[in-house]
Amino acid sequence: MLLDTASLYFRAYFGVPDSVKAPDGTPVNAVRGLLDFIGRLVQDHHPDDLVACMDADWRPRWRVELIPSYKAHRVAAETANGPDVEETPDTLTPQVPIIEAALDAFGIARVGVAGYEADDVIGTLTARATGPVDIVTGDRDLFQLIDDERRRRVLYPLKGVGSLQVTDEAWLRGKYGVDGPGYADLALLRGDPSDGLPGVPGIGEKTAAKLLDAFGGLDGIIAAIDDPGSKLTPTQRKRLDESRPYLAVAPKVVKVASDVPLPPFDPALPAAPASPEMVEALARRWGLGGAVARLSSALRH
User: What are the backbone dihedrals phi and psi of residue 209, each rounded to the nearest 5 degrees, phi first?
Assistant: First the structure.
């Protein structure tokens, strides 16, 4: 089980009231929400391995160099040497170090790599896995990793983690008319305002799906631009032709990496907290006794 950790703690932050606070008044709603997320996932799915994948760089330079608008609207401050600062709620940012400390205290593997997003860590671990993989994310970008034959699916929270959409190829085809790899092509053609991806003007989700079905993929669509006998409309041909510079670089930006140099780590789900003393100290300091007890119980069972 691979967690898109930032996606989940953002959801926890907005899903758990900010009246949930530590004894000193510091909001800890994202921390408590994420620990409860993880406890419920462990209780319901019993994974052998669990990895909290982290955004060491939420907006990698190599993606921005290819498409400068990539996540540009979410930048709070640019940094010369290192990740840009993402615009996040003031009361969420201070909770991230507490989340990291809690994961470490429980002994839940936490993996992030400089220059890469959590998506890329997930893509690499999925590529390396020899058994089934459940990816837990609120980000549809990771639908591109779905593969029924290799038993790769996405558990997409609809409301908390008690209500998860089990997303497989049948669901993808029913909703979008594509398979996993086809979803990445669909996303780059239609664009994604939340990631600053412009897409091809005039080509929305339904048209993108029809083109992918007709021409077998992005390469087939690009080949069709130069084929006067292809069934592209004159308007589609013109728009796709004008978008060639974007289409040349977009796949590298949209598709998650599968070759990230990962550090050594132990993915095994712990049967008990790695540091009970640290867990107890965090529970006292931040008023997390209930969430800590629930996660500890889930690990034991």
Answer: -60, -40
Token readout for 244 is 């060639």
Contact 124, 258 (CB under 8 A): yes
> DSSP readout, 59-86?
S-HHHHHH-TTTTGGGEEE--SSSPPEE
Nearest-angstrom CA–CA distance, 10 and 5: 9
pLDDT greater than 90 at residue 19: yes
Nearest CA to 161 out of 35, 301, 300, 20 is that of: 35
90, exposed or middle or buried, with CB in 10 Å at 0-12, 13-18, 19+?
A: exposed
pTM: 0.95
d(CA 193, CA 190): 10
Say yes or no to pLDDT of 81 above 90.
no
Q: C-alpha distances in angstroms, 260 versus 54, 112, 218, 250, 256?
A: 13, 10, 24, 19, 10
CA–CA distance, 103 with 110 (Å, rounded to integer): 7
- State the Cα–Cα distance between residues 87 and 73, nearest whole angstrom: 9
Residue 34 neighbours by CB distance under 10 Å: 29
Q: Report whether 66 contacts 253 (CB < 8 A).
A: yes
